[in-house]
Amino acid sequence: MNRTMTVEHDVADLGLAEAGRLRVEWAERFMPVLRQIRERFEAERPLEGVRISACLHVTTETANLMLTLQTGGADVLLCASNPLSTQDPVAAYLVTEGIRVFAVKGEDNERYYDHIRAALEHRPQITMDDGADLVGSLHMLALGRYDDVAPGIRAWVGSLPQGEQDEIIAGVTGSTEETTTGIIRLRAMAADGVLRFPVIAVNDSYTKHLFDNRYGTGQSTLDGILRATNLLLAGSTVVVGGYGWCGRGVATRARGAGAKVIVTEVDPLRALEATMDGFQVMPMAEAAAQGDLFITLTGDIGVIRREHFLAMKDGAIVANSGHFDVEIDIPALEDVAEAGPRELRPYVEEYVVHGKRIVLLGRGRLINLASAEGHPASVMDMSFANQALAAEYLLQKGPALTAEVHRIPIAIDREIARLKLASMDIGIDCLTDEQERYLSSWEQGT
Ligand code: NAI
Fold first, then answer.
1. How far, CA to CA in Å, does 82 sit from each of 107, 116, 339, 396, 413?
2. Is the CB of residue 241 below 6 angstroms from any atom belonging to ligand 1?
3. What pLDDT shows up at residue 1?
4. For the CA atoms of 100, 69, 217, 272, what is the dihedral angle to 10 degrees?
5. Is 255 helix (H, G, I), strand (E, B) or coil?
6. Potential cystine with 80: which of 103, 113, 187, 202 (Cβ 3.0-4.6 Å)?
7. Facing residues of 101 across strands?
8. In terms of C-beta distances under 8 Å and separation of at least 24 residues, what long-range contacts does 396-399 make, across chains too?
9. Per residue in 50-77, is it b (16+ CB within 10 Å) or e — as a string?
10. According to the CATH classification, is domain 14-207+375-423 in 3.40.50.150?
């Protein structure tokens, strides 16, 4: 690790910094909410001198979050939350901006955890996590479970004077968590009584779900499918498995592109909503024979199975945008197929089932990440606005919060929506004093 520069870092190549700057600047154009927060942070410096260690995907959008925190006065360190997602030019650029970055695309497990160690060595007062690897490592140390941490972290902790190990975790006011997987881990820690500080579940905020799951996944799932196949959606029959946050986004966008959309569901409430929204609703067993394109977004296993493959039309295309690659039963497809897989284009594989061609996209993995670019910057703007305001909130209220996973306060969610509307130049009404009184009173019935 290079300690000769103004800030410590471990990145691939500082020579990439200029290319990184241009990419970060491009993303910034589509992040007006974070920009408004940055302007306020510049004036108020609410994070003055606060040490923040962030373990997030090192991307252009994350760079804008880091710069916002720095503008608020924070002393920021960033390490990767995934060894493969680091954009090396972005990492280099942030170092030139005085942010300690420890992330190299393709880093091995040892280096990945060395970088997490650097995040701990920073003695953070606030941590930001995406998958709970940083907070998890911190707690393993606090619990004395040295066998459960990476060797590099274990060796470092062993070299610390007695008592300092506990000081590290005691110095943390709280953390934020970006994703569902991390929230699940942290809730399990809270349930076991081992979580030592409050965590704000950025993932659970309304502004995050609305943009990430509905609009982001809605658009990027179709984008991935179109890039892989160059299909024309108009006039085709698209079957959407699951009418949750993501499914609603995809179904609506597919209809907008002229497709006839069928929804499958297991929850009567969601199925009713899909029906009243004007979609055809039926079991997958029936839809299987009608669809030209199938997209699963349920978070469930085996949504498309053997009997469904057998019922499909010649040429049917099957894709998944749910988190894990278990929604389409690929082993069953391989079992029932007499031929395949035959790769026709990148991410496009054909099987032959009883003489009919069935096409699987992206090997059943998240199609918007496999063959498109994930979420647009304007979607991440909302997530990262939540991150920035959650950090500020933790600083103010953290000591009074219990060591559990907390939802982001609704007032912050509303503030982010207000900033987004302001950036779009959309005004809304305010409650009059009379309306405030009316809505908060039980005595005024008429
Ligand atoms: P959600 O819980 O709002 O919706 C899931 C829906 O699927 C529910 O309505 C449920 O009743 C339905 N469902 C469950 N089993 C089913 C089955 N066998 N057949 C038909 N419907 C079924 O969840 P959300 O937010 O829509 O997320 C769905 C999945 O997408 C999750 O795995 C999530 O992690 C993933 N996701 C993917 C993103 C991406 O970038 N591709 C982004 C965000 C989430």
1. 9, 11, 36, 30, 27
2. yes
3. 52
4. 140
5. helix
6. 103
7. 78
8. 398/126, 398/173, 398/174, 398/197, 398/198, 399/173
9. bbbbbbbbbbbbbbbbbbbbbbbebbbb
10. no
Q: Could you tell me how far CA 122 lies from the centroid of its own chain?
A: 25
Look at the pTM and tell me if it is higher than 0.70: yes
Q: Residue 130: what residue type?
A: D
Name the amino acid, one letter, at 431: L
Q: Fill in the DSSP letter of residue 15.
A: G
Half-sphere exposure of 365 (CA within 13 A, CB side): 9
Ligand 1 centroid, distance to 64 Cα (angstroms): 29
Residue-range domain boundaries for the chain = 14-207+375-423, 217-370
- Where the chain has pLDDT below 70, the residues are 1-5, 444-446
Which CATH code is given to the segment(s) 217-370?
Answer: 3.40.50.720
**Shortest-distance atom of ligand 1 to CA 264:** 20
Ligand 1, residues 298, 323, 365: which to mutate, most atoms within 8 A of Cβ? 298
Tell me whether strands 126-129 and 174-177 are parallel, antiparallel or unpaired: parallel
Q: Which of 294, 293, 302, 296 is nearest to 322 (CA)?
A: 296
Query: Residue 216: beta bridge partners?
Result: none
pLDDT of 446 reads 58
14-207+375-423 and 217-370: identical CATH topology? yes
Helix (H) or strand (E) holding 155: helix 151-158
Note the pLDDT of residue 373.
80
User: How far lies 362's CA from each of 366, 406, 417, in Å?
Assistant: 7, 35, 34
Burial level of 386, CB count in 10 A (0-12/13-18/19+)?
Answer: buried
Ligand 1: nearest atom to the Cα of 367:
41
Helix (H) or strand (E) holding 128: strand 126-129
Neighbours of 132 (CB within 10 A): 26
264 ligand 1 Cβ < 6 A: yes
The confidence score (pLDDT) of residue 4 equals: 45
Q: What is the distance between the alpha carbons of residues 287 and 311, in angstroms, rounded to a whole number? A: 9
- Decide if 87 contacts 65 (C-beta within 8 A): no
Sign, Cα dihedral of 338, 340, 344, 347: positive
